[in-house]
Amino acid sequence: METAYLIETIIKIVVILLVFSALAGLGTYFERKVLAFMQRRLGPMYVGPFGLLQVAADGVKLFTKEDIIPTNVVGRIFKLAPVITAATAFMASAAIPFLPSFELFGYKVNPIVSDINIGILYILGVMGVGLYGPLLGGMASANKFSLISAARGAAVFISYEVVTGLSILAPIMMVGSLSLIDFNNYQAEHGWIIWSQPVAFILFWIAAFAETGRTPFHLIANDHEIIDGFGTEYSGMRWGLFFIGEYANMFFISFVIPLIFLGGFGDGSVMGALALLGKMAFFFFFFLWTRAAWPDIRPDQLMWLCWKVLMPIAVVNIVITGLVMM
Q: How many domains does the chain have?
């Protein structure tokens, strides 16, 4: 049994790495198409039918582009930073049940690498460690704008980790567990948590934009400075690892939100599985929608929103939840 469990776990890890690495590439295609549609443009059209092979072309470019290590960078840290970003994104997926259990040739498959009893804490902790990728990448670069971007990114990630943690405390108090499987089972019995915790849902959703570095909280990339922030001096597949980490995080958080607040996969039926994938697709689409519709806000506005608005609301929500449960 131990051998079978080990083989099953290795297969799950390989499938997650392959599927979500591919989805990161496809995510760029969907993003470019969605943005083009909303801005009355065509987007990718010429490489393959409807521009579908643009993803393959971009992948070939990343893998074959010259890997340049600029002069005066801190070499080892500069090389390690992209690996941290990509690795932590995929490590966080270990506690996420992507689908309900199903049977394959008489063998029961659980589409989760490890259903640990501190699943949510593990996911938030590993995603928090992911801030070291942009931070070290910017600090190791020989570029002042990369350094500014790294400091700004660390401030955003650390600040909104507080909001994420506080917002999720109220649902955890209700469920009495940190396992996402337990969250799903609780909602199958008692109804979606969003109806009893709408404030926590909104807070968690807002913080997700900061956690993934997406518009309107896309400050770490320094778009208004016409450079790529902490990734300015990166090229080839090292830059690609930052890129894959960002899109993988978007997919993973798009699974986590419906699992915590919107009933997950329900009773585990085929319709429940399709419903979970549909919810995930909506949240991923919403990341793209906001990029087309909202401008980036200033760093001081972002910090003001976090510490003076969202965090007090999260604390009040926890207190009210505790009083109601008593």
A: 1
